Amino acid sequence: MAGAGFEFVSSIVFFVIGGYYLDGYLQSEPLWLLVGFFLGFAFAFYSLIKRAKENE
């Protein structure tokens, strides 16, 4: 689980940046930024749980 922290943070950052650019394109600030944050957090948490179950 050496890269779990990096994977957690990078997935949140990836989705937030995607939401930021989608907001700029659709001019709907801050809707997609927030959606990106929560999707990134959900994906990161899912990934963390999946890694933990693999290492049992």
Q: How would you describe this structure to a colleague?
A:
- This protein is mostly helical.
- The chain has one domain.
- The chain is built from two helices and no strands.
- The chain has helices spanning 4-26, 31-54.
- It starts with a helix and ends with a helix.
Structural class: mainly alpha
Name the shape in a single word.
elongated
Average predicted local confidence, pLDDT: 91
Alpha-carbon distance between the two ends:
11 Å
Count of helix runs: 2
Largest sheet: none
Relative helix content? over 70%
Task: Encode the helix/strand succession as letters.
Answer: HH
Low-confidence parts: none
What count of structural domains? 1
The strand count comes to 0
Q: What share of residues are in beta strands? A: under 5%
**Cα radius of gyration in angstroms:** 13 Å
Helix-strand layout with pairing:
Layout: H1 4-26, H2 31-54
Helix pairs in contact: 1-2
Organism: Leptospira levettii
Protein name: AtpZ/AtpI family protein
Keywords: Membrane, Transmembrane, Transmembrane helix
